[in-house]
Automatic annotation (TrEMBL):
Residues 175-330 form the Phosphatidate phosphatase APP1 catalytic domain. It comes from the Bacteria. It comes from Spirosoma flavum. InterPro entries: APP1_cat (IPR019236), Mg2+_PAP (IPR052935). This is App1 family protein. It holds the Pfam family APP1_cat.
């Protein structure tokens, strides 16, 4: 079985490489008329190191979603997200903290760098600006402005620039939060492939639904027991980077606190849907978050539908004393619940409570009992749950 899995994986990887070469050969001239786009993903780090990632594509701007979008508009937007024309080998200039560094995109158009911030960061600040630009790449204003009337030419060339932000947990943060997204924050039904595809491909940031009360609960966790605090929240998912803009819009619309969103590359590899790929990706991202915040304890939030309990219990074993609590939303059948309860007994041996909860309020009440959130926020979370359930 291992031989066939490896053969299929290698074959699919070769097919993807050949497809990219063929696409670049056949459509290179057409793609030359598409504007360059720098897609940046929110960076994060510590006072000693910051991780930045992004991508360069030839892509038109996606239309702004609305709650009135039709089936076909949503389907077109999904097609545009996944039909990305990556730009390999282009130099990206990054400016942050008064420093300037350059890096080169890989064959999929991604860039990935680590920078060292200055030692005198403002104590009360969590978000910092960063600017991305493309070296030796200019395009006309006509290329950048897709709404310019046909026949109206522009003669001004512009450098391709994108402004973004990165997050560094302030020294007064009491703890951090690492949260799954699918079936934890966002209703996805990840155990049902057809339903997941329908929600992902035919919905948008307005039509997708949050779990009831989740926005108020995450705001309470970010504020902690004292509302002047800022506890960083990191979102980790095995969803592809192609869905990044949808998730950013969804969090903004629902009032969920802003934080880095860590996804993974989409490819034809058999590992994309395999459980080991899901496990290894999420574990690697969680380890990265823990590594850049070596003195910060964490709360972990996930669901029972896939492997969050297994991944989180491994994190507990690898990081004794650093995990304060684990909340697992119960979205699975009874036979799965029993295996989760076994993992709960495992984490108890490390004095880490792992709760299998039916809803957000149950998690919030326990968090309040541990002093993780202000008890006065629990009524707001209950009200938020009721309001979400009425949608």
């Amino acid at each position: 079985m291992a031989f066939w899995k490896e053969l299929l994986s290698n074959t699919s990887t070769d097919a993807e490489t050949q497809f990219d070469r063929l696409k670049n050969r056949l459509f290179g001239r057409l793609e030359a008329h598409k504007p360059y786009r720098i897609i940046y993903y929110r960076g994060f780090g510590s006072p000693s190191a910051v991780w930045l990632k992004g991508r360069v594509l030839r892509q038109r701007n996606l239309s702004t979603p609305s709650d009135r979008d039709t089936f076909w508009q949503n389907l077109l937007a999904t097609y545009q997200r996944f039909e990305s024309d990556e730009v390999p080998g282009v130099t990206v200039r990054i400016e942050a903290f008064g420093q300037t560094i350059t890096t080169v995109t890989d064959k999929e158009g991604y860039f990935d760098v680590t920078i060292n911030p200055p030692t005198d960061l403002p104590v009360g600040r969590a978000w910092f600006p960063v600017r991305y630009s493309l070296d030796n790449v200019v395009q006309t204003e006509n290329e950048l402005n897709e709404n310019r009337p046909i026949g109206v030419e522009a003669t001004v060339d512009q450098i391709v620039v994108k402004d973004g932000h990165l997050m560094i947990a302030p020294p007064y943060s009491h703890f951090g939060v690492i949260s799954d997204i699918d079936d934890t924050v966002l209703v996805t039904d990840a155990t049902n492939l057809i339903q997941t595809a329908r929600l992902t491909f035919l919905g948008n940031a307005y039509t997708r639904l949050p779990f009831a009360g989740i926005a108020a609960f995450y705001r309470a966790l970010q504020s902690g027991p004292v509302t002047t605090l800022f506890n960083p929240i990191y979102f980790v998912s095995s969803s592809p980077w192609n869905l990044y803009d949808l998730l950013v819009d969804f969090f903004r619309i629902q009032g969920i606190p802003k934080g880095p969103i860590l996804l993974r590359d989409f490819s034809f590899s058999t590992k994309l849907l395999a459980s080991e790929g899901h496990h290894s990706h999420k574990l690697a991202m969680i380890r990265k978050v823990l590594d850049v915040n070596p003195k910060l304890p964490f709360v972990l939030i996930g669901d029972s539908g896939q492997q969050d309990p297994e991944i989180y219990s491994q994190v507990v074993r690898e990081n004794p004393g650093r995990i304060l609590a684990i909340y697992i939303r119960d979205v699975s059948k009874d036979q799965r619940d029993e295996s989760v309860r076994e993992l709960i007994r495992t984490t108890e041996a490390y004095n880490v409570p792992m709760l299998l909860v039916a809803d957000t309020v149950a998690a919030a009440e326990h968090a309040a009992s541990l002093g993780l959130i202000d008890p006065d926020t629990v009524p707001e979370i209950r009200a938020d749950r009721r309001a979400d359930n009425e949608l």
